[in-house]
């Protein structure tokens, strides 16, 4: 016998929690399935533990800077096990608060994996059945694994958060967010780091800023090896050699992180049988309203073909439920200007279009205004690393369609500019605004 609900959600990560909680707030009877801990990737294996590690890395960098500007300092040492314990306690607190909120909201949480058996019914391994006219698939994604010899000698991002000691020499394979963020963090925390990139570094970001970041990473001692495709790993877990496709050998490393993107959790949950369309990599295809190809089945978050970011999953879940439960027939989230930051050292951020995308869309109407500067603190310390800001504009009235920032503070300053860009921002607005001086943010107002 099937228990009946208004809304069934598979996955208690960013997207699933958002959909379930908003559904309950709007009065729906909600069932939420997940065999794993509450919070999904972001809370347990992604944004949150990563950001904690980024803060630790920042402190280590600041300590070096302190010496450069005249503090009497002695070398500092991070007790990884203690840091991990403190971080994990913080994360356990987040999970506890989620559990309490779900309980208070009256959401039925079933700690099991579920799969769809029809367009309105799911079943768990224990045989529990539930039905609803709306089923939201929010099952996320997992680190991509390669079928190459020795892959198991290395770690994926889930594993790196378990480390309780610093690797001496780590190889990071990949060129995306995870690869660059961990390359910078591990280096700041005292590891020797080789970043092995097969193709592009941070594809999708402004390439001039990416190259500036890559130069700064190399100057600080991170070895960035381009055009390096790894075809095998040899040795044992704490003494790994990587074999490249061109015959070259890299290592010996005492740790390897594979950071090769993510595989959507869309197989073995009954989607194929119901004819839910997916792309070649398994991402569920959704329209702007999170509809899949099958009525009654919806999808949000990393399992879909949309941007794999927590705020995107949250916004998608919320908009979908506004439509399904709240009765707002045209509810969808605005994905026209999704801001994003790579928590590198220094951070790199963007919102809107890159120069290349703007040229492809608007041709000769595009103008680009950029500036470089060395932040005040770096100048005092006698350092020369430059920050870069860039505006991509369109038309004679210079409507801003892209903002790109690299440098200390970029992570925090971008949000406000992203709101302005989404609402409609012209270069003249920035020129007319009164700056906050001296800050990194004012550099976007002072471009000529
Ligand atoms: C290392 C790392 C750092 C990141 N940093 C950032 C960042 O700084 N900022 C940012 O915006 N994004 C970041 N992300 C991306 C972000 O974590 C994801 O975009 C976000 O977690 C996606 O949420 P989701 O709900 O789609 O999936 P998830 O959070 O992955 O949740 C999916 C849930 O579904 C469950 N599940 C799977 N199959 C089933 C099933 N059959 N039945 C029931 N439940 C199931 C899983 O157990 C999981 O709990 C990072 C990712 C990683 C890996
Ligand atoms: N700060 C943030 O917001 C943040 C941080 C981490 C992750 N994320 C999100 O999570 C997603 C996943 O991050 P990611 O870094 O795992 O993926 P990614 O898609 O950003 O990068 C994957 C990288 O792996 C490379 N790659 C793929 N297959 C390969 C192979 N066989 N050999 C060598 N290289 C290969 C790709 O060329 C690419 O450089 C991101 O796209 C992003 O949306 C966001």
Give the gist of this structure.
The protein is an alpha/beta fold. Helices cover 33% and strands 23% of the residues. The protein starts with a strand and ends in a 16-residue tail after the last helix.
> Which topology of the largest domain does CATH recognise?
FAD/NAD(P)-binding domain
Characterize the overall form. Answer: globular
Give the domain tally. Answer: 3
Radius of gyration: 23 Å
Strand content: 15-25%
How many runs of DSSP E, i.e. beta strands? Answer: 23
**CATH-assigned homologous superfamily of the largest domain:** FAD/NAD(P)-binding domain
- Average pLDDT confidence is 97
Strand order in the sheet with the most strands? 4-3-2-8-18
Molecules bound to protein: flavin-adenine dinucleotide, nicotinamide-adenine-dinucleotide
Helical content stands at 25-40%
Low-confidence stretches: none
CATH architecture of the largest domain: 3-Layer(bba) Sandwich
- Count of discrete alpha- or pi-helical segments spanning 4 or more residues: 13
Structural class: alpha/beta
* Name of the level-1 CATH class of the largest domain: Alpha Beta
Distance between the termini: 69 Å
GO molecular function: glutathione-disulfide reductase (NADPH) activity
Domain Pyridine nucleotide-disulphide oxidoreductase dimerisation: 338-444
Enzyme class: oxidoreductase
Family: Belongs to the class-I pyridine nucleotide-disulfide oxidoreductase family.
């Amino acid at each position: 016998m099937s228990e009946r609900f208004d809304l069934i959600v598979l996955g208690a990560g960013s997207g699933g929690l958002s959909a379930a909680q908003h559904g309950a707030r709007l009065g729906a009877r909600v069932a939420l399935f997940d065999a794993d801990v509450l919070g999904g990737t972001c809370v347990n294996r992604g944004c949150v533990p990563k950001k904690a590690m980024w803060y630790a890395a920042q402190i280590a960098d600041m300590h070096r800077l302190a010496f450069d500007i005249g503090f009497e300092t002695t070398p500092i040492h991070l007790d990884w096990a203690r840091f991990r314990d403190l971080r994990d306690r913080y994360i356990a607190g987040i999970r506890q608060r989620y559990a309490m909120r779900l309980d208070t909201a009256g959401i039925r949480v079933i700690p099991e994996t579920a799969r769809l058996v029809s367009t309105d019914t799911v079943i768990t391994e224990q045989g529990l059945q539930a039905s609803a006219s709306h089923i939201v698939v929010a099952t996320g994604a997992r680190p991509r694994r390669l079928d190459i010899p020795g892959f198991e000698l290395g770690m994926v991002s889930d594993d790196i958060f378990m480390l309780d000691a610093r690797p001496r020499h780590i190889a990071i394979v990949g060129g995306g967010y995870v690869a660059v963020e961990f390359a910078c963090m591990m280096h700041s925390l005292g590891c020797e780091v080789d970043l092995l990139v097969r193709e592009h570094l941070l594809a999708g970001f402004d390439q001039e800023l990416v190259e500036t970041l890559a130069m700064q990473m190399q100057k600080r001692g991170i070895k960035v090896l381009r055009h390096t495709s790894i075809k095998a790993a040899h040795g044992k877990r704490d003494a790994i050699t990587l074999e490249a496709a061109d015959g070259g050998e890299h290592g010996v490393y005492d740790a390897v992180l594979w950071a090769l993107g993510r595989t959507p959790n869309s197989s073995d949950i009954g989607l194929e049988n119901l004819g839910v369309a997916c792309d070649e990599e398994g991402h569920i295809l959704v329209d702007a309203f999170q509809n899949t190809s099958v009525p009654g089945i919806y999808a949000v978050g990393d399992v879909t073909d949309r941007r794999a970011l927590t705020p995107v999953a949250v916004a998608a879940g919320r908009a979908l439920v506004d439509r399904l439960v709240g009765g707002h027939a045209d509810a969808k989230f605005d994905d026209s200007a999704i801001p994003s930051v790579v928590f590198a050292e220094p951070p790199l951020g963007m919102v809107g279009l890159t120069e290349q995308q703007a040229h492809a869309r608007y041709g000769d109407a595009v103008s680009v205004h950029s500036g470089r500067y060395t932040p005040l603190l770096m100048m005092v310390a006698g350092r020369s690393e430059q920050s870069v800001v860039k505006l991509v504009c369109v038309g004679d009235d210079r409507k801003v369609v892209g903002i790109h920032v690299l440098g200390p503070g970029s992570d925090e300053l971008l949000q406000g500019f992203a709101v302005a860009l989404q609402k409609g921002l012209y270069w003249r607005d920035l020129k007319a605004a009164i700056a906050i001086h001296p800050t990194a943010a004012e550099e976007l107002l002072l471009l000529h």
